[in-house]
């Protein structure tokens, strides 16, 4: 049914020959292309079947009611080319063609290539040695596993060290979300080895691993300060009563908290509920570690909380669940978004138990333990790292300028905190090295981690804007190579969008270079025709001139 393609449906149809029958109208044909794009490369073969003599808005049921037979249907199917060959056949009907990227088929947005694996720079000190040791014995993505190790390490190290950025202190806690297929992404498999590594080092920390993000109050409760209640104390007959603070809850002594949210989509859904304060509490947890709730019956607050969040989600769930508000208010850009997919097939599960009991693993744990006591207080960049980062009196040089440049759309909203996150990752690398300064190699490692996550965000979000009206228009124009008139664009929304709203959406798309328009002469007033402005890197079938 139109608009009801759920992610699990593509799994059911994997390996099958799929024939798609669309309604005979614009929305039906668009939906057919969307379904075909989602199944492209997953199903054994896909074709969009055009039934002859359908009435306007008619479908397969109408065709059968009009006398169509099974034999005729089979004949029509057999004459319809498969979509994997359609883009190269100029004789194929325009309405049956889909856009094909080098990396994925999509009519939703221009999809960047899947990110290249982390380079050698990122495999530095303990984090790199850990991944190289355990990677042959797990199906987890080594790039995601390394970044997750950094997140775990940053949480275990706690709030002892920080790096200044202006008047702000940045500690070693980071937020990370792995994005990949439900099972074959092996996002959850990346957590096990890291937990085993740190469990023997700090047994108290294991109790700091929680899950189930659902409300700000729940998050605060996990790192709450002692709670006192002011009670009246009688001083005897005829004497005025006095008040004293009585401890009613001892609070949590260890302010480290690692939230392992295996189903991050659940947290995004929780934020949709009216009055839910999870999003602002998470933002406070990243920025300052001082948390409180204005809810009347929630007296808990937390100071100096050291919160790390590691979530997992599929690409489809993320795009469906991400709220425009959460992009605008800075929730999304506090996360590293990292692609994850299975690296190898291990039917017997590898030999991880031998690794964690071996001397190299124990030696690595000892190296971390020693490094964790080396540094406290502020950490600064040395001269070489500062040359790479940049200086106030030379703002046109250094990577800081590039990290803070303006970005657009959902991708831009989710990567706008590039400099702050890179700074935190470089701090983690320096602490793992037992260093008192952020050196060149620490910063280069952090920049490579950011490169991977930045490329992941490009792959995940494409050039979607996060503005529902503009994104819907862009999807429609990309599915209609010949372009659409204003009237046809208005019909997309059943004429439930005002002229002003449509004009603003088209202006945003035009200013971003995503669409163009031309005036076509008619016997009366010229018609305004809008066409998608395809960007370099996307293979498309150009309309006939």
Q: DSSP helix count?
A: 23
Strand order of the largest sheet: 7-10-13-6-14
Rg for CA atoms: 28 Å
- Ranges where pLDDT stays below 50 over 5 or more residues in a row are 85-109, 534-545
Strand content: 15-25%
Distance between the termini: 34 Å
How many DSSP-defined strands?
Answer: 21
User: Whole-number average pLDDT?
Assistant: 85
Helix content: 25-40%
Oligomer: single chain
Description:
With 545 residues, the protein is an alpha/beta fold. The chain has 23 helices and 21 strands. The strands form eight sheets. Strands 7-10-13-6-14 form a five-stranded parallel β-sheet, sandwiched between helices. The protein has a three-stranded mixed β-sheet with strand order 5-4-15, covered by helices on one side. Strands 18-20-19 form a three-stranded antiparallel β-sheet. A hairpin with a 2-residue loop joins strand 4 and strand 5.
Write a compact overview of the structure shown.
This protein has 545 residues and is an alpha/beta fold.
List the helices and strands and how they pair.
Layout: H1 7-12, E1 17-21, H2 26-39, E2 45-49, H3 60-65, H4 70-79, E3 100-101, H5 125-134, H6 142-157, E4 161-165, E5 168-170, E6 175-179, H7 191-199, H8 203-206, E7 209-210, H9 216-221, E8 227-233, E9 242-249, E10 256-261, H10 264-272, H11 278-287, E11 291-292, E12 301-302, E13 306-313, H12 315-321, H13 324-328, E14 335-339, H14 352-356, H15 359-371, E15 377-378, E16 380-381, H16 383-389, H17 399-403, H18 409-414, H19 418-432, E17 437-438, H20 440-461, H21 468-478, E18 484-485, H22 486-492, H23 499-511, E19 515-520, E20 527-532, E21 538-539
Parallel strand pairs: 1-2, 4-15, 6-13, 6-14, 7-10, 10-13, 16-17
Antiparallel strand pairs: 3-21, 4-5, 8-9, 11-12, 18-20, 19-20
Helix pairs in contact: 5-6, 5-15, 6-7, 6-19, 16-20, 19-20, 21-23
């Amino acid at each position: 049914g139109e608009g009801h393609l759920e992610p699990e449906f593509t799994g059911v149809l994997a390996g099958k020959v799929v024939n798609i029958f669309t309604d005979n109208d614009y929305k039906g044909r668009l939906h057919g292309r969307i379904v075909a794009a989602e199944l492209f490369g997953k199903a054994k073969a896909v074709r969009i079947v055009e039934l002859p003599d359908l009435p306007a808005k008619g479908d397969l049921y109408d065709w059968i009611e009009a006398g169509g037979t099974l034999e005729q249907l089979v004949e029509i199917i057999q004459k319809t080319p498969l979509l994997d060959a359609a883009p190269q056949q100029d004789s194929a009907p325009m309405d049956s063609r889909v856009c094909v990227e080098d990396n994925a088929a999509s009519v939703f947005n221009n999809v960047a290539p899947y990110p290249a694996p982390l380079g050698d720079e990122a495999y530095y000190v303990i984090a790199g040695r850990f991944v190289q040791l355990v990677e042959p014995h797990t199906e987890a993505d080594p790039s995601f596993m390394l970044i997750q190790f950094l997140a775990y390490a940053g949480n275990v190290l706690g709030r002892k060290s920080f790096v200044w950025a202006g008047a702000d202190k940045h500690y070693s806690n980071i937020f990370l979300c792995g994005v990949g297929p439900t099972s074959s992404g092996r996002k959850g498999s990346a957590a096990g080895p890291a937990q085993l590594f740190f469990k023997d080092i700090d047994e108290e920390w294991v109790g700091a691993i929680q899950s189930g993000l659902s409300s700000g109050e729940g998050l605060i409760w996990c790192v709450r300060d002692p709670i006192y209640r002011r009670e009246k104390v009688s001083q005897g007959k005829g004497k005025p009563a006095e008040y004293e603070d009585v401890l009613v809850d001892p609070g949590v002594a260890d302010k480290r908290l690692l939230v392992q949210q295996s189903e991050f989509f659940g947290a995004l859904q929780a934020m949709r509920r009216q009055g839910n304060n999870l999003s602002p509490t998470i933002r406070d947890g990243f920025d300052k570690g001082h948390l409180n709730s204005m809810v009347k019956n929630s007296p808990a607050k937390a100071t100096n909380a050291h919160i790390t969040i590691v979530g997992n989600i599929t690409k489809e769930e993320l795009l469906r669940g991400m709220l425009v508000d959460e992009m605008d208010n800075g929730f999304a850009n506090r996360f590293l978004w990292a692609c994850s997919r299975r690296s190898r097939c291990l039917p017997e599960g590898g030999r991880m138990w031998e690794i964690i009991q071996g001397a190299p693993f124990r030696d690595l744990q000892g190296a971390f333990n020693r490094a964790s006591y080396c540094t406290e207080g502020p950490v600064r960049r040395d001269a070489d790292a500062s040359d790479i980062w940049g200086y106030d009196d030379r703002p046109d040089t250094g990577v800081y300028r590039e990290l803070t440049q303006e970005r657009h759309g959902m991708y831009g909203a989710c990567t706008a905190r590039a400099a702050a996150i890179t700074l935190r990752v470089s701090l983690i690398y320096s602490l793992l090295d037992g260093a008192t300064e952020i050196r060149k190699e620490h910063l280069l490692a952090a920049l490579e981690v950011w490169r991977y996550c930045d490329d992941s965000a490009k792959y995940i979000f494409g050039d979607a804007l996060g503005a529902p009206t503009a994104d819907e228009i862009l999807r429609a124009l990309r599915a209609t190579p010949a372009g659409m008139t204003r009237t046809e664009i208005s019909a997309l929304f059943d004429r439930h969008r005002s002229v002003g709203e449509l004009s603003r959406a088209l202006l945003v798309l035009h200013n971003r270079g995503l669409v163009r328009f031309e005036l076509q002469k008619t016997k009366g007033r010229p018609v305004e025709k809008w066409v998608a402005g395809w960007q370099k890197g996307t293979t498309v079938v150009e309309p006939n001139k």
